[in-house]
Structures are given as C-alpha cells and as structure tokens.
Amino acid sequence: MFLDSFPMLTLMMLAPIVGSLVILMINHKDQDIADRNIRSVALLTTITVFVMSIFLWVGFDNNTADFQFVEKHDWIGDSISYYIGVDGISVLFVVLTAFLMPIVVLSSWEAIATRVKEYMIAFLILETLMIGVFSALDIFLFYVFFEGGLIPMYLLIGVWGGANRIYASFKFFLYTLLGSVLMLVAVLYMYMQAGTTDIPVLMNYDFAPGVQTWLWLAFFASFAVKMPMWPVHTWLPDAHVQAPTGGSVILAGVLLKMGGYGFLRFSLPMFPDATHEFAWLVFALSIIAIIYTSLVALVQEDIKKLIAYSSVAHMGFVTIGIFVLNPNGIEGAIFTMLSHGVVSGALFLTVGVIYDRLHTREISRYGGLANNMKMYAVIFVLFSMASIGLPGTSGFIGEFLVLNGSFAYNSWIAFFAAFGVILGAAYMLYLVRRLIYGPLDKDDVKAMPDLSLREKIIFAPLVAVVLWMGIYPNSFLDPLHATVENLIETRFSNNVGHAAQDVTPDAAVGR
Amino acid sequence: MNGNIPELLPVLPEIVLAIGAMILLMLGVFQGNKSYKQVANLSVLLLAIAALLMFTQVGGERQTTFNGMFVTDAFAVFMKTLTYIGSGVAILLSGKFLTEHKIAKFEFPILIIFATLGMMIMISANNLMSLYIGLELQSLSLYVLAAMNRDRLRSTEAGLKYFVLGALSSGMLLYGISLIYGFAGTTEFDVLATSLRSDGTPAIGIVIGLVFLLAGLAFKISAVPFHMWTPDVYEGSPTPVTAFFAAAPKVAALALLVRVLINGFPGLTHEWQQVIIFISIASMLVGAFVALVQTNIKRLMAYSSIGHIGYALVGLAAGTQGGIEALMVYIAIYLTMTLGAFAAILSMRKPEGMVEDIDDLAGLSQTNKPMAVAIAIFMFSLAGIPLLAGFFGKWYIFLAAVEAGLIPLAIIGFLASVVACYYYLRVIKIMFFDEPTASFDGEHGGAVSFVVGAAAVLNSPVSFLLISPLVAAAAWASGALLF
Q: Which positions in chain A have a beta carbon within 8 angstroms of at least one beta carbon in chain B?
C-alpha cells in the first residue's frame, strides 16, 4: 500500500509545528484581525492533521500485530533512534488526539480572548507531543514526548486558568514529574541491561523476575500518577478545575490516556512476571478508586470537579481491564479509554458552554436549563448517559467488556467494579437533575441563550462518534484484536483468562 | 627534546596567551582606561587565536612537555574549547555593564585572559606542581575580578571573602599535595598512577593527602560542603564577573579534578569514589533545597550551579569512561545554559539601574516576549525537562551512574531534580503568570541579545540535531584519558 512508505506520522507531527510557526509570524496592527487569523490557522492545521489521521486509520491493516507506518532513522550514537510507528493499541489514540484538537480550537474561539497567539501555539505543540507519545517506538523518544508535554500544559493551566491556577499548575507539573523520574531510572537500567532503547526489542526481552519487580514499580509510579489512580489522583481535580476548557478537554481526553497506554505498551509486555505479581495491587487500588471517587463525586459542588472525579473512577475500570489480562478486558479497557476521551471531553465542553455564559461552575447557581436551553439539555443528557454507560452509547461497550473480562478472571472484582456503574449513574443523574431540571427561577440563568451555531458544530461530531461507538463498536474494536491477542499470546499464554474468549464483542453488543 | 629547551609546540596556545596578555597590558597602561574597548576586543581576538592554534597546531594527540609537567590530549582540547568559549563570552557580555558602572578598566579583560591561562594550565596539568601553579594563577585573577567594583561594599566583600576562603582551600590543597609527595615520593600523575597500582594497599598518608586534595578542589568547583562562598561571591560580584565565575572556571576545575583522579589515582578509585559520591549527593540536595527560598536571581543561580556541579560529579563518581563522557556532555550543555541565563540577567535593567530580584521579572512575557521565552528555555533546560538540551545532560549522567551500579545515587539525583524544578518553575511562573510590573528598558546592548539568542537556540529543541556530534566529541575526548 502506498501509505506504508509515506511518512504519515512524521507529517502529522510536523504539521502542528509548521502551523505554530505560521501563527508566530502573524502580525497585524488590529488585534482582532490578527487573533481571527491565528484562530483560523490553528483550526486549519488541526483539521489537516485530523484528515491525515483518517488516512492513517483507513490505511491501517487490522490483520497484523506488527507495527505499521514505521519510520526509523539513526539519531544519537548506535542505539537511540528516531523510530516511530503504530500498532492496534496506539493507532486509535493517535486518531483520538487528532479528532479532539479541532474541537478544542473551536471551543476556545471566544472563550480565550487574551494572548491568543501563545495559546494556540501551546496547543499545537502539545498536539505534536501527544501524537509523538502514542507513536514513539524508541523508549528515549517516548520519554522526551511524554515529559515534554508537561511544558505546554503547565503554561496552559498557569496562564489561561482559573483563580487558583498557579497552585494547580505547579501541582500538576511536580506530581507528574516526580512519578516520571522514577520511570526514567528504570528506562536507564533497561537501556543498560538490554543495550537498546528499541521498544519492539524490549517488548520481547526477558528481564530477570527480581529485576522486573523494581522496573514494574518504577513504571507504575509514573503511569499511576498520569492515569491517575487512587491515591495519587489529587492533582487531577485541581488541574481540571483550573485549566481553561480546552485544556480540560485535552487533559481528560488525551493526557490521561497516556497512563493506560503506558501500561499496555511497557508494563505488560516488558514485565509479564511482575504484572502477574502486582495485579492484586492494581485491582485493589482500582476498586478503591471506583467506589471512593464515585462517592466523592456525589458531593461535589463544582461541575468540573465532579467530572474530574468521575474520570478517576472511569480510569479505575481501565486499569482493571488491563490487568485481568484477557482479550475482553484489555480491549474493553482501550475502548473505555477512547470512549472516555470523547465523552469526558464533551462533558467539559458542555461545562464550558454554560461557564462562558455565567462564569461560574457552581452547580447550585444553575437549574432548569431544560426550559430555556433545550438543545443544550438534550446534548448534556446524552453525554451524561454515555458517561453512565447506557446501552447504545460508547460508555456501555467499554464497561461491559471490562466487567466481562474481570468476571472471567475473578467474580469478586467484577462485583465490586460493578458498584462503579451504579454510583456513576447516581452522581451523573443527580448532576443532571440539579443542572437541567428543576425550576428555572434564577434571572441570570433565564437569560442564557441556547447553543450558538459554533457550539452546535462542535458538538455534532462528538454526538455522532458517541453514538457510532455505542451502536457499531466493531469499527473501533477491529484494529485492536490482532495486537491484543498477540500481546496475550506471547507474554501471557498460560493465562486462565482465555476462558472468556467465547464471549466475543459482537455477541456482547447483541445482548 | 633539543638541548635544555623543552618542546614548545604543545604549549604554543598558552605561550601566545601569556605574551599576548602582556602586550595588551602594555597597551592598556600607555593608553589608560579609555582603551577598555580596544583591549577587550583584542582580548577576544587573542582567545580566538589561541583556540585556533590549539586546533591547528596542537591537535588531539597526546603530547607531554616540560618533563611531563604539561600534557595535552583530546580531553584537554575538549575542555579548553569550552573554557575559551566561556571566557570569550564573559568579555563580550561585560562591556555595557562595566561602562555604565564606571568600572570599565582595561585590566578587566586582561585579568580574564590571565585567569584563562591559569585554567589552560590546570586542564593540562600532569603534575601536582603544575596543577597548583595553574590553580593559583586562575584564583588570584578571580579574586581581583570579584572585587572589581571596589567602590561598592558588596563587591569588595565578595572579593575579600573569596580570597580568604580561597587561600584556606589552597592551604588544604598544598597540605594534601605535600602528604602525597611525602608518602609516594613523586608529584607526577603518571608515576603516581603506576606506583599506586602496583603497591597493593596504599599508605594511609596518601589517602589522607588525597582527601585534602579533594577538599581543596571541591572548593574551586563550589561543591558542598565547600560551597559557602558561592552565593555571596555570586551576588556581590559584578554580574558579568559572576557569569564568568559560573562558566569557565567550573569547566577548568572539573577537568582538573577528572584528570587528577582518573590519571593520578586510578589505583585508589575505591577511596575517592566514596568522597565524590558524598559531595555529589550533598551538592545536589543543597542546590535543590536551599535555592527554594532565594529571592535574588544571582543567589538562585549560585545554588543552581552548586546543584549542577553535583550532577556533573555523578559522572565522575561512576569512574568509568562512560561517566567521564557524560560529565563532558553535561558540562558543555551547562555552559550554554548558564551563559545564557546570566546574559538574560544582564538584560534586567530598569531606568534606575540593574535589578536582581526574581520578582522584577514579573510579567516579562507580556512586556518582552522573546526574552521571556529565552529565559523560560534556560529554566526548563536547567531543570532538565525533555525537549530541551538540559535533559540530554541528565540522561547521560544518570545512565553512567546506573551502568556503574550506582542506582541509589541516580534515584537521589532525580528526586533532587524534581525539588529543584520547583524554583525554576517559579521563575517561569513569575514571568508568564504574574501581572507585569514596569518593563525593562531593553538597552542591554547587542552582545547580550546575541548571547541570549544563541544560547536559547542551542538549548531549544534544535539541540536534538546537535546532541549527536556533541556526544561523539565527548566520546573521542574521554577516550584520551588513560584507562
């Protein structure tokens, strides 16, 4: 296929950089015109990247577990190279990133009025780095992208954030950095031991079991913070609440997925023994996360904080799905991540819509929006349902597959995880009742106009994708099968989880 | 050797420097202080000529002369190049500042040249005697430079403090040298190395001497616990002098330390390794924690440089060729970061004069965006965040530590770097998140802008392209040390 020899991923990473250089050069004595041009260029750039990502998806061969769209060039010395490519696990994350970016740019169209230039440049650079994280096949390169993303995000939260933005930005940066440096020690050790930074080689390298334990813990420190897992999740509510809407969308939609992606790309294939050994720890933390953070979400007064805690709970599902080590669990985890990326991103956008109108995120300041913002109410309820996991929406498929996979592994885990579904329904429905229903008795709320055309354009693709993922999930599951199966077969072939294979995703949807 | 005259070709650049400096001195004396500009320009030219001679006439072959007192090899070429850059940039940066503070004396560039000459001898020292001579030539010049602004109390205080403590450290160094000489019967590195290797257990006197020697050298690189002078001297000295202190002498003293330990005491690796590990950890921790509470940017940079010396010493602590290579990569990157950062500090001018508080940077991103971006690059690079050059340094340093089995050292170092990250982030926060105060007047001169710009580009992701040749050069240079 012609796409194979075409440096698609490099172009996807270069395009935002080119876009930001163009933005850098935009200068006009009328600030409004300059800002409009900047926004247009940013939008155009992100749409270009998205179109390229469609080609990536279409050109992706679902039948092989090999890395595709591979590019490799020597970089430093003999071992560190510029080596990128995607497999079934990563390809959809790249698409997700490219999909969310134009939406983020559109959502910031009016909300960001100060320092538009820097804002858009920061986002475009962040896009390059995010695509880089998901496509890097050299562990050094991965680390550079993984950690480099902190810089634009730190600036985004700190410059355009809410009242308490400085605290949030420092906490975000230092928390994630602290986790990552431990991973860096592990990376250095692996480099020394295996003599290469090549991820595909490392994935098949057998580290001694005793060493695996330490390496696994070091990687866990980084990914658990990024994920975030209880009890190191506390940076997330702060960062989410303080970040501008676009920042929250990217944070929830893409940056949180790096933790789960990291587990799948590094922890599982490189340290299979330690993965078995520590699965109980992950399950325990995940179950605590699901139940505890759901309860915390129930009492939140701030909409964004509520959604942030719900993210932690959803990520609990993801970690359970990953570590039950059977195809349904892992595919469910990936699907949940994709779905959560779209749904939580969409929820933050819906918050942004009313925040732009009333400039508060306090739930009690709203109420009865169904009366004057009908369109908005429909969309908000739809995304809430997707977050709860109502059949027909994307959330259901992921949760179902994860619960199915965990049931095959251990019914108690499934039992406790299922609480998350119930509690999720509780806090989301409670939120919907307080925001959307009830009497419309506040004058300033009454005056809020319904969705503008721009906002409708933002939400239309999100609604479409949520329903598409819910009704025909195979489009998203097909690329996963070969890679996930290969992962389990090569590293966990003696796993009992295979018993669950007779429940295929297709059958699951049919019920 | 022809007759009694030693081979002079290997020392040609140093001879040129020495004679050139004396000629410039004459020039200055006859013309008075109005000749500052001329002397400064000629000094930079002189440094360039010396560097050029080093590349073309000396080269990377190992050569010794003066009965083995002086050695030149690839390692020396690498470190000397960095030193030349550090000294030259320091002279370039100082013009505007000195003129405005009415201390534009022609001695300034000449003192820098003499200090540089001292550093060259330090880097090429192959004998404890030449080590001491080089070190003293450098130190004496630096004492005077610190007190350059002699009408200002802080500057004279800095000079005096530096001198008294420096003299103390020289005393310790000499005491250590005399012990080593007494017990080993030689001051030559090569002879020391072979005799210590064959001896089996070394005499206790040599070990004690070595510790004294290390203490004296640790003072020169401002490693903890011999760092106390650093913040005061950095703060009190005129800023261009501080920029000079933070760059070239650090390179030279580290080079000296490496050569003494690797060439002179390979048989005592186990003994000195413990000392280096201790001062490395102590420097990283002090550099990280004490800097948290600083409000003056020069003091902040002082603690930051203490921390960075700690990181560089990790490479030496590893004691392997990889470690030395990492140290060289690190110090090269550190040089660009620190020169850039100090050039940026030199741009902090308000109508009422130079300012040095970190808070004076408030809102710089809105009043002077390019400068703010450049400082942000330096800060992120100093913090060792990927995307910027500083990360490569950390990567190689800790890779060497892990390879040498010093994993706890690597973990401590990384944790210290997270702590240190806080204060670098604080500088960025002040520039980007805070509301602007009165802006800087921007009349810092072309040289400062050039250095800031060049250093920022070198530290930016452009470094992805430059890192490969740098690592190759460091590998070539570190291979020249005897292993």
A: 75-77, 115, 118, 129, 140, 143-148, 150-151, 154-155, 158-159, 165-166, 169-170, 173-174, 177-178, 181-182, 184-185, 188-189, 191-192
3-state SS string for A424-491 = HHHHHHHHHHHHCCCCCCCHHHHCCCCCCHHHHHHHHHHHHHHHHHHHCCHHHHHHHHHHHHHHHHHH
Q: Tell me the HSE value of B206 on the side-chain side, using a 13 A CA sphere.
A: 25
For the cut 50, the answer to whether the pLDDT of residue A503 exceeds it is no
User: Which tokens belong to A273?
Assistant: 């023994």
Q: Tell whether the model's pLDDT for residue A265 goes beyond 60.
A: yes
Q: What ipTM did this prediction achieve?
A: 0.88
| Residue from B335, B378, B98, B76 nearest B238 by CA | B98
Quick one: what percent of chain B has pLDDT higher than 70? 99
How does strand A80-86 pair with strand B63-65? unpaired
Q: How far is B376 from chain A (nearest CA, A)?
A: 10
- Return phi, psi of residue B433, to 5°: -100, -25
Q: What is the CA radius of gyration of chain B?
A: 21
Q: What is the mean pLDDT of residues B47-67?
A: 88
> Mean pLDDT for chain A?
85
Phi, psi of B72 (to 5 degrees): -135, 135
List the one residue out of B274, B278, B342 whose CA is nearest residue B304: B342
Q: Which residue of B has its CA nearest to A214?
A: B407
The shortest C-alpha distance from B418 to chain A (Å) reads: 6
Q: Which token pair is A261?
A: 């992606």
Distance CA A95, CA A338 (A): 10
Looking at residues B468-473, what average pLDDT do you find? 89
Q: Is the pLDDT of residue A315 over 80?
A: yes
Most B CBs within 10 Å, among A128, A130, A184, to test the B interface: A184
State mean pLDDT over B277-302.
91
- Residue B342, both tokens: 């100090």
Cα–Cα distance, A38 to A27 (Å, whole number): 9
- Retrieve residue B357's tokens: 């508080």
Rounded Cα–Cα distance for residues B166 and B135 (Å): 11
- Report chain A residues whose CB lies below 8 A from the CB of B464: 75
Compute the distance between CA of residue A415 and CA of residue A421 in angstroms, rounded to an integer: 11
Per-residue CA distances from B29 to B22, B25, B36, B151 (Å): 10, 6, 11, 21
Does position B107 have pLDDT exceeding 50, yes or no?
yes
Digit-coded pLDDT (tens) for B144-175? 988 888 888 888 888 899 999 999 999 999 99
Task: Please determine, for residue A498, whether its predicted confidence score (pLDDT) is greater than 50.
Answer: no
Angle B446-459/B463-478 helices, nearest 10 degrees?
Answer: 80
Tell me what percent of the residues of chain B surpass a pLDDT of 90: 37
- Concatenating the DSSP letter of every residue in B296-322 gives BHHHHHHHHHHHHHHHHHHHHHH-SHH
Distance in Å from the first CA to the final CA of chain A: 37
Q: Which residue, among A303, A345, A344, has the nearest Cα to A436 in the 3D structure?
A: A303
Chain B contact set for A129 (CB, 8 A): 387
pLDDT band at residue A499 under the 50/70/90 scheme: very low
Token pair listed for B471: 């690592």
Whether A357 shows a pLDDT value over 90: the answer reads no
Task: Compute CA A200 distance to the chain's CA centroid, rounded to the nearest angstrom.
Answer: 23
Q: Which chain A residues have a beta carbon less than 8 Å from that of B410?
A: 185, 188
CA–CA gap between residue A281 and residue A287 (Å, rounded): 10
Per-residue pLDDT tens over the stretch B360-419: 888 888 888 888 889 999 999 999 888 888 899 999 999 999 888 888 898 899 899 999
8 A C-beta contact, residue B303 and residue B294 = yes
